[in-house]
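Review box. Two proteins, two foldings.
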Amino acid sequence: MSRPEFVQSLERGLKVIRCFDAEHPRLTLSEVANRTGLTRATARRLLLTLDELGYVSSDGRHFSLTPRVLDIGYAYVSSLNVQQIAQPYLEALSEHVNESVSVTVLDEADIIYVARVPTTRIMTISLGLGSRLPAHCTSMGRVLLAELSTDELRTVLPAELTPRTERTITSRRELEAVLAEVREQGWALVDEELEIGVRSIAAPLRDSNGRAIAAMNVSTHAGRTTVAELHEHFVPALVATAQEISDAFAKR
């Protein structure tokens, strides 16, 4: 149940913004109404308001988002100070291991990329700031999910975990056991569960109160790096860098 202070028009306006994506960059009024579940009249008023504010543009038939929408996301990223504080450490780690290094935050059942130092592309999907991936089958997602209580996990995770490969853990009980191990050791390893050929390790980034505010990972190709090599060479470097970034966060 929503709070008495809940502003439904704001919720609907944000729903309109979120209905645009890579597969639907340009939408008609009818398409916006269908994708949001709003009436045409309501969708029209919201689109015209967003147009007036500069968040949406129109060619007379189709609507699309404008770059001003990025201001909303950038306000969050800049408030974390991730790029300002962590970027030099990410670049140093990437150069040391010669692999891509990323930072994400948890948003319900997904992780969202907020910083990234790419090297050779190893995934079929393109990742950049704002990209989303399911938390349950990613190393950074598991690091952040491991911080949640049992009740929080049940609220956040969907009833059915969608497999991304034949190796993806889809059993809630098995995932909870893996998260307990991650919680104890302080880092996570995911072996071709998100995409065949991709292995990654992740560790949490903590604030001065010890709260995990983000996670960072190193991704590599399975044909280039064995699991044993990840344990022996990559994990120590990752954990050490994560601690350096956490220490820098604590001093800000």
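Next protein.
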Amino acid sequence: MAADKTKKGARQPQASRDDVALKLRSDPRKERRYEPKRTPAVVATPVVGLIGSLLLGAGTYLLFLRDEALGSKETLGIGLLVAGVALLVFTLFVGQWPARPIRVGDAGVGIERGGGEIDRIGWYAVTKMSLSQLALTVQSLSTTIVIPLALHRDAAARVLAEARQRIPGKVEDITSTALDSYDEKAGEPMALEPAQVAGQKCKASGKLIAFERDARLCGRCEEIYHKDSVPKRCVTCDARLK
């Protein structure tokens, strides 16, 4: 009886923080969508560019296209031309243009392009992340996403926070206190479509995944494995796969 009581009262082993459950393709996925901040500089930049274009047009007309009956306007024309060029150069190299919406979640980091297209870098595909005073940069072998801090600070902080949890080895060079606070409620929560796994190859064995039901995903970085070749630890993020 004493032995039975001891056995029942024994503390059960706790799961390690590295323990991550495998995911099926059909498991729900989510992300957050961040609209860029509209700063005064973003609003002013196109206005300055428009004024520069108008001055450039007026200066060109006075110098080259005017009617001789209007008299000599060379000095005014040159002044308008120079001012227009100066404003356009300022707009191109100093002005702050609107950024594109950023998405952060189970599928990794995404940036919206025209026509409803989204360029994504999955967590498993990240090769490097770097942080400067101006932007957070996420790189894969084929894609680079630059997130400007002035317009997307909450999105950048969220990306970095999730990267520290999902792929800590890729952010070791970034100070642990950098962007360590952000608004948890910022961004619009959105449901994600199921991962595209058919036709992919298992990261561990290289085996082709012909049927979606045969795919298993790392619950942390979403690396893809064949159900018959799942390793004990994720090849990409080193999580212990359960």
